[in-house]
Amino acid sequence: MKLDYLFFLNSVLFGIGLAMDAFSVSMADGLNEPQMKKSRMCLIAGTFCFYQIMMPLLGWFFVHTISELFASVQKFIPLMALILLLYIGGKMLIEGIRDKGESTEKASVGLWELTIQGIATSIDALSVGFTISEYSFGAAVIECLIIGLVTFIICIAGLLIGKKFGSRMAGKASILGGIILIAIGIEIFVKGLIG
């Protein structure tokens, strides 16, 4: 695999495509926590970035080691993403409904929820490991790092957009954030069923 212009363009496009779910979840997190500090924004975007780097590398590794086992698990990936996002989205939705828009101070997404979000939004990136399986390990790492960088930038944008609208929406932000997460989970599941 040549590390030429097309390689880098392909990597960036992969990153944009894979980061769209993480972007939406980042917006939901920003809606939920409009007073979020820059360090927390970097932590959230960094978490999504980490999983978007690791999942394609795991996919590449599986192709080169235990591809038969991975093939049997792959059909359950959309269902796993749906369950994880239903859990987080449902929790946000219930908290928003309980608050009834009265509280302007939102609870931040905890480390456990953030980890679940990172896994759920990047689990489909495992299959990218199949598409880059002909790459050398070095080229696969470079591709995954580019995907991660693109994801980080896109997630920061999502957090900023969510924060901006979160401050304006006050108590309804958790409800909207929960609905967004549930919708993303359903979309991933339906895409997995269709093809």
In short:
By secondary structure, this protein is mostly helical.
Backbone structural class:
mainly alpha
The CA-CA distance between the termini, in Å, is 28 Å
- Rg of Cα set: 17 Å
Can you give the mean pLDDT?
82
Strand content: under 5%
The number of helical elements comes to: 8
Number of strands: 0
From the spread of the alpha carbons, the general shape counts as: globular
Encode the helix/strand succession as letters: HHHHHHHH
Low-confidence stretches: none
Give the biggest beta sheet. Answer: none
Description:
The protein contains eight helices and no strands. The protein is mainly alpha-helical. Helix 1 packs across helix 8 (173-194). The longest helix has 33 residues, at 137-169. The protein is globular. The two termini are 28 Å apart.
